[in-house]
Amino acid sequence: MKYCEKCKVVIPSGRERCPLCQSFLAQSELPGHDDEIFPYIPTAYHQHNLLIRVSLFLSIVFCVVCATLNLLVWTDRSWSLLVLAAVAAGWATIIQAVRKRSSFCKHILYQVVTIAAVVVVFDLMTGFHRWSFNYIIPALCTFAMLVVASIAAMGHRLIENYIIYMVVSAVFGIVQLVFLLPHWTTILWPTVLTASASIIYLAALILFVGRDTMFELRKRLHM
User: Distance of CA 215 to CAs 77, 82, 113, 162, 174, Å?
Assistant: First the structure.
């Protein structure tokens, strides 16, 4: 028998962590059995454990080879840092895709944030020519709005299930106007057009499904 100090419950199981809070379990003197009573549900990491380990190993080998060549052969520029960043971004995308696979819309929004952060880092590493803020981020915001709206339009569930994702995708498009203040964005039309479309998008939500929109916002924000 095991005991969870945090949850104050006895766990009749041979597991190491509490199934409720994931804290390490302590040994209990209470009588009982140690058979596992919770069903084992394999995660994607367990189902494809060998493939993930091999892929991770090959990624490490590839990064080490590139860094070695950069240090010994092509030493004029630190191009291996771009390779390391690309590999790290790829793994971040895969991890998010596995973790958020239950909600495709949520996965899209997470991917927008991840890819936007990666392209900004690449832009900074290559001299900060601002192409990430001028073109890539507005394109990502537009893509997110179109995909979420399309899924909501074709979904079999009620539109209320997609409202929060639609609102967040619209906010993404509006927030990028902030990048104009420190002059991170130097070409106006992609940002302005995306922000204008986001405002129209958000206005349509408020005017046509306003009650459901406000209900979802209050529920999500605990207002």
Answer: 54, 44, 25, 13, 22
What is the pLDDT tens value at each position of the chain, 223 positions in all? 677 777 777 776 667 777 777 777 777 665 554 455 554 455 555 556 777 788 889 999 999 999 998 888 877 777 788 788 778 877 876 776 666 555 778 888 888 888 888 888 888 878 888 999 999 999 999 998 988 888 887 765 666 778 888 889 999 999 999 999 999 999 999 999 999 999 999 898 888 877 766 776 676 666 5
Helices and strands (DSSP H and E) totals, the chain: 9, 3
pTM given for the model: 0.63
Q: Do 63 and 134 lie in a common domain?
A: no
Which amino acid would we find at residue 198?
Answer: S
Look up tokens 């991890």; give the residue: 95
Last residue of one domain, picked from the residues 99, 118, 134: 99
At 125, give phi and psi (nearest 5°): -70, -20
Domain of 4 in residue numbering reads as 1-41
